[in-house]
Sequence to fold (138 residues):
Amino acid sequence: MGGTNPYIEKAEYELPNTAYTVTFVQPDGTVTTVTVNPAQIPFGETGLPGSLLDIAMGNGVDLEHVCGGVCACSTCHVVVKEGLASCNEGTDDEYDQLDEAPMTTLQSRLSCQCVPNGTQNIVVEIPAVNKNLVREGH
Fold:
């Protein structure tokens, strides 16, 4: 899907100049660490270029994103456990969407809007409740 949402405030962000790592912790405890090479950004068309969702999708990490990464839902909600200070500031539109997500914390972000600048390594926890139960149910 991908693309942009013309109805929201554009997020300001700084892309990294140096390599850094993002460690994704899945609800079942599975840990995937990705080394982000700034020259490879963007990894795809989902989320802002260099966003946590872009990095996840480009590296085979399962992270729900029903709206295609355009800040129109809250399914890509993550908790940035380490390195939040190196990420761009969230917009009012992002925080409005986060209000719809269950189990948010002060470290919660939409992964489609959260872009690290590469000055710190990042640890991201993917909450169990971000799964799309309609898709997951059998």
